[in-house]
Design a protein that fits this description.
alpha+beta, about 20% helix
């Protein structure tokens, strides 16, 4: 999975002191005091995403949520990771195999489109923004950035649930929806979406969109 780590980092966005323009699906939406999804998660007042952020840092997957986007992160809480038996801190030591498995799990939670349960301001259904998937009356299927296993597609339903196409019964509930970040959306979920345990195809050397 080294190739995936490297191509994720190619889209990393500089996190300087200047507040960037919010850029969702290519359409400017105003100003933000945060640079990206990772900063929004880190600023959570309840500290619900410390495990997610630590896991992302340990595996090198953090660049997937600090790139220019648009992306949507289905963000498991600390409680969700605990329920899945996953524990990460900045001091956690991972073997190569553990790191690869964790990276594949994290990659299952990111998609390169803007997934929302409510329309953005000024939404015109006749002219939807580029890369927007609006989940209202029907389930929407989107691809995660996990490229080397079945179940890369995620099914997001109007009842605010998300599952993988290969395990539709194992649903995570969206407990907080449509958190806006400059480079995309955050959907907070109460369970970790576990991909198949082994890759079906060799790790790709093709950068997953939108990090090409």
């Amino acid at each position: 999975m080294t190739a995936l780590v490297l191509c994720l980092t190619s889209g990393a966005m500089a996190c300087g002191g200047v507040s960037p323009t919010v850029n969702t699906s290519g359409d400017p939406k105003g100003e933000s005091s945060f640079a990206n999804i990772a900063e929004v998660l880190a600023a959570d007042t309840a500290g619900r995403f410390t495990t997610l952020l630590a896991c992302a840092e340990l595996t090198g997957a953090g660049a997937a949520i600090t790139g220019t986007g648009p992306v949507t992160l289905f963000a498991p809480t600390n409680a969700a990771f605990a329920k899945a038996g996953v524990s990460c801190t900045k001091d956690t030591k991972l073997s190569d195999a553990q790191s690869a498995a964790l990276l594949r799990t994290l990659a299952q939670h990111v998609t390169d489109v803007d997934v929302r349960f409510s329309p953005p301001a000024g939404y015109d259904e006749k002219k939807p923004p580029r890369g927007l998937e609006l989940v209202t009356t029907r389930p929407v299927t989107v691809d995660s950035i996990l490229l080397d296993a079945p179940g890369t597609a995620l099914v997001v339903a109007p009842d605010k649930s998300v599952s993988t196409v290969d395990a539709p019964a194992k649903k995570a509930k969206v407990v907080e929806a449509d958190i806006q970040a400059p480079n995309g959306m955050i959907q907070v979920i109460d369970a970790v979406l576990i991909p198949p345990s082994k890759p079906v195809y060799p790790p790709t050397t093709v950068p997953p969109k939108p990090f090409e």
